[in-house]
Amino acid sequence: MRRPFSYKLNIFLFLLPALILFIGVLIAPIILSGYYSLTEWNGLLTPEFIGLANYKELFTSKSINIMRALKNAMLLAALSTCIQLPFALWLALKLSKKPVGERAYLSIYFMPVLISTVVIGQLWIKIYNPDYGVLNLFLRSLGLESWTRVWLGDKTTALWAAFVPILWQYVGYHMLLMYAGIKGVPPELNEAAMIDGCTEGQVNRYIIIPYIKPILRVSVIFAVTGSLKSFDLIYVLTNGGPNHATEVPSTLMINLLFLRNRYGMGSTIAVMLIVLCFVFAIIINMIFKEEKGR
Amino acid sequence: MNTATLNKKYPPMRSKKKPKKTVGQIASYCVLVLWAFISLFPVYWMLTFSLKNNAEIFGENVIGLPKYWVWENYTRAMNTGNMPQYFLNSVIVAVSTILITLLAAVMATYAMTRLQWKLSKTMHKFFMLGLTIPIHASIVPLYTTLARLKMLNSYWALIIPYSAFSLSMGILISVGFMGDIPYDLDEACFIDGCGVWGTFLRIIAPLMTPAVATVGIYTFLQCWNELMFANVFISKDALKTLPVGVQALSGQYTTDWGPIGAALSIATIPTLLVYVFLSKQIQDSFIAGAVKG
Description:
The complex is a heterodimer. Helices cover 72% and strands 1% of the residues of chain A.
């Protein structure tokens, strides 16, 4: 009866468009990137195989200074995990208690996720504008003239100023995931705990948070790998400046590729980023598994 | 469990917690409102200064509603630079990407969930790899290949990569929806003499419209806002998409905030409109992506 559903040619034809796209644009390029990362190549002549020399240069070169970029990305990952996620969790917990206007809050918090990063970046550039920006204006109106800064142009503040919009934009995303998870907690569990005399805090701590651990794991993975890959907002806000203070691996990669035509070295950074993302995803998975075992 | 550990885990209810709780509730309500304000402020500010003249923007009236509504900012934004062209380019790229992603994803989903073959599960896992692959992984090979094929500075240079990177999410969402279509329908249609293709076109495709909406929305948002590929693969002004075009415009007119605000608003308003009408579906499509991820 079901045999005609298994004609091999039909299966192949149904899969064909997806396979062409997927292999052509994702799988084959990854393999090629791996190969290019082992070559010196300016994009025009044939790539010259040089083994691991790019990797060695990447981690020793003072002019590329990958360590600073990685440090910046890790700082963003840490801020994201330690400030953004707990705050998102707090918002999700509060909203799940059905305050008045629950849907409105949810939709407002999520809105920044949908807006183009270029628009958000341009708006924050204007917020940070030293003369007419809202931030300095606000400080001046409070009489805190001495606190005003050239936020994105000052080496000491640029990094933090560039991170704030990134953290701001994605709070709503993590909040939404956690909120969806909390809505999936069976209400009997909450009610039983309430009857047993648990306070709201205890229900959150002992029922809801353990229950939504799989979602928290996803959120942490997204936050960390997203930080490692972060590009858009940094590119719009500072493009790595002033004086490379806000450089992250992705901005380094784009600059090496398209300003210095170093396709081999650009690929090396790309490969390093992919490997780092996978390694961190595995580590985070292991941490969450260990917690479960206890 | 003895009483000691029980008490430690679930301390007995305290009687005097009522007044404290209300203060706490008011405080947390304030934070909710404050965060709503912080989330909305940049967009509110953008929409208002897009309608102000420079005197208001730069001092007289920085955060209030505009006193004189300068619609001229919008006409200037549409006339300087190529805003209408950028907008059109973004629409062309987004619509084509959605169509290709949908076609490829629904067809592949049909093959993997309705047709019987040994490796269908493996194939599904293979496609799900795409959820974790960052676009950095393919930027160099794509760029050099597109250059060799003389396809840089064409719509295809964006449509093909966007479709490929939306594919995994499209399949993930489609598999969920197709699972809800009863198998009996396929078999009934098959007994009536439809082939595999007939079943697909007459039963599966029409019943997949909810998935089409979810995948379509998700794909739209991804490619409407994408910056890295759009920035690298397109250098010709006439082919730029909104994010790249707006970025270029903002660099040119740094002191004229009104028209820039208008350009930023033009890029944002379509997304906001879609969000106002489809907020639930949009949120669901983002949740669908993460739960499996």
